């Protein structure tokens, strides 16, 4: 299982690496178009903040399988913590759960699960992300949800994954406007960057018409990125867990073998002593 996870992890890392430049580019484009559209952003449903916030959708991204250490447990723990946090503010939490492990655990705990998505966590496709994001955006625009948060494991290395939570909707509070950990400006020549910021942009169709399409695409991509990060994190956690299990098993085998040899030696010694004692008695 460790070898299989390691092989799949390399492919998952390549998918994340290939996707990140596109994610940064569309974030930058959406921000620039929103700035160019001036007052048009107020008429985009995904940008509107719902006040007061009564219903919060929390998307928990777990795995379909276990044997991955604390990978699934820490996501569930964060979801339960968020529920307590929002409940203290008189806000109701509605869970959307990705992965069989998360779904079974939340249902066992008696939590309300409005959306359940299983069967693709090890190799998610963009269509899977789009299905999830469409359900979330529909619930948000219909007023069933007033806020949507994503909770997933962010991949750093096979040994390091950490729980990350960020706001998906409304987009005015999301990373698209530079409030997330991907909000840093791209590196490069300062004069080129300054010229890029001052450049006049022309849009076809106009910015007001382009905004809704861009923001929907951004939500799709945000969910897809979270799925890819979670997939790589799950494989890394499983690889590490299986390596630790193998090392612990070898250590246990060594300890038991030593104990067996000690017991065997003690029995042989006891038999020799009995033979010697019997010979002395006969002599």
Explain what you see:
- The protein has helices at 2-36, 71-87, 100-108, 126-141, 190-198, 207-282; strands spanning 55-61, 92-98, 113-117, 147-157, 160-169.
- It is α/β, with parallel strands linked by helices and 283 residues long.
- It has a single domain (2-240), classed as ATP synthase, F1 complex, gamma subunit (Pyruvate Kinase, Chain: A, domain 1, 3-Layer(aba) Sandwich).
- A hairpin with a 2-residue loop joins strand 4 and strand 5.
- The longest helix is centred in the C-terminal third of the chain and has 76 residues, at 207-282.
- It is elongated, with a radius of gyration of 28 Å.
Class per helix and strand makeup: alpha/beta
The helicity comes to: 55-70%
Annotation field: number of helices: 6
Q: In CATH terms, what is the fold-level topology?
A: Pyruvate Kinase, Chain: A, domain 1
Lateral strand order in the biggest sheet? 3-2-1-4-5
Approximate strand percentage: 5-15%
Looking at CATH, the homologous superfamily is ATP synthase, F1 complex, gamma subunit
**Overall pLDDT level:** 83
Q: Which series of helices and strands comes N to C?
A: HEHEHEHEEHH
Q: What is the class in the CATH system?
A: Alpha Beta
Largest sheet: 5 strands, mixed
Provide the fold topology.
Layout: H1 2-36, E1 55-61, H2 71-87, E2 92-98, H3 100-108, E3 113-117, H4 126-141, E4 147-157, E5 160-169, H5 190-198, H6 207-282
Parallel strand pairs: 1-2, 1-4, 2-3
Antiparallel strand pairs: 4-5
Helix pairs in contact: 1-6, 2-3, 4-6
